[in-house]
Amino acid sequence: MRRKTTSKTTYTLPIGPIHPAFKEPVMFEFEIDGEKIVDVDVSLGQVHRGIEWAGMQRNPIQILYLAERICGICSFSHPIAFARAVENAANIEVPERAEYLRVIHGELERIASHILWAGVAAHEIGFDSVLYLTWRMREKVLDLTEYLTGNRVTKAMITIGGVRRDITKDNIPKIRETLEYYKKNFEKLRHVFLDDKTIKLRSKNCGILTFEDALKLCAVGPTARASGVKKDVRVDQAYAAYGDLDIKHITPDILTGEINGDVYDRIVVRLLEVKQSIDLIEQCIDKMPSGDIVSEPKIPKLLSAIKKNAGEGIGRHEAPRGEVIHYVKLDGENEKPYTWKARAPTYNNILPWIPMLKGEQIADIPIVAASTDPCISCTNRVLIINKKHRKIMSREQLHRLSVEKTRRLMKTHHIIGGGTI
Description:
Elements lengths: L1 E3 L4 E7 L11 E7 L2 E8 L7 H5 L4 H8 L9 H14 L5 H29 L3 H22 L8 E2 L2 E2 L8 H23 L2 H7 L7 H6 L4 H5 L7 H4 L16 H4 L6 H25 L11 H9 L2 E10 L2 E10 L7 E5 L2 H4 L3 H5 L7 H6 L13 E3 L2 E3 L3 H19 L8
Antiparallel strand pairs: 1-2, 2-3, 3-4, 5-6, 7-8, 8-9, 10-11
Helix pairs in contact: 2-3, 4-5, 4-12, 5-6, 6-12
C-alpha cells in the first residue's frame, strides 16, 4: 500500500506474524520510505496458552510447575516470583540458606540466558560462527544446572517456603570448575562481541533507546540499563540473599565510559552481567549459612497453612530479561488461589521497540527487535476485537466460548473416542 505525504511517498511493509527472523509469532507493520523505517506498529495476540486460568484450577504447589513453563529460558524466574507472591500472601518465612540457594540458581539461569541471547543476536546479523561458539560455551552452565537439579531446563528447584534440593560440600568443586571456565573464556567472548568490526558496524548507533524513552516507556532489565536507567530489583529492593552481597547496577559506561542506548550497549550490559553473576555465585558459596532449605517439608501441612490465609501477595524477581512480577490473591477458604497474574519483562519492553526502530533500515529490524531478548509467549493476553470495540475476556466468558467451540467441532467432525470419521 502506498501513502502520499507532502514531500515523499511511503509504503506499508507487513512483517509477521510468522517470519524466519522471529522465533515466535509477532506482527509488525512498518511504514517505510525506501529502506528507511518511518513508523512502526506492533500487533500481538497470536499466542495464548491460558496458563493463568489453568493455574487457578490447581493448588499453589501444582502451579509452580505451570509457572516454570511460562518460559523455558526463565524456568527459574517465574516460579520464584510466584513462590514469593504466595509467601507474602500467606506470611511464610524462607530459611536463610534457601535464600542463598535461590540466588545461586537465579544467577546460573542469567548466565545461560545471556549467552544464549548472544548467540541469537549473532545469528540475526548473519554471524553464525559466533552463534556456534557461544552456544558451545553455554553447554557448561547447562551441564552444571543438570548436575545440581537433575535437568537442564525445567529444574523444579523452587517450592513455597524454600527450595527442593540442597547444594552440598561435594557439589562445590563442580560449581567452582564451571565458574573458572567462564572466567577463562570471558575475554574471548568480550573480544568477539565488542572488538569485531562486523558486529560493531551492525550494532553501534543502531536501535537507540534514549534514557528519557526508556524511563517513560517503563523498559526493564538490560534494555533499560543499557540506556542508563539504573533499575534492578536485586539492588533497588533486595530480596533473597542479595542484601548480603556486593552488587550494583550494570550500565555500559562501566566498560566503555559512555552510554548511547544502542544495540552495542545492550551487548555490553549482558556481557558484564555474566561476569557479575559469576562473582555473585562465588560470594554465595563463601557466605552461605548452614540450616534448613525449606520452612515446611510436608506438602499437605504446607497447603493446609496456605489455605487458612486470606490476603494478597506480590513476588518480584530480576529475571535475565528484567523484572518479572507475579500477583496472587488467597481467599482463606479454598486451596486454589482466587487470582494469579504474571507479568513478564517483555511486556514492558515491547513499546520501546517503536522509538528503537524508527529511523533504522529494514535490514536492522531483526537485530533491533532481538536486542531486547523478547519472549512473546510470556507476554500475550487474550483480546477480542469486534469492529471498533475491544474488551478483555473474563474467565467465565472464555470458558463458555471454548466449550461452545468444542461442541461445534465435535458436531462437525463427528469425533468419536478420540478419533474422527
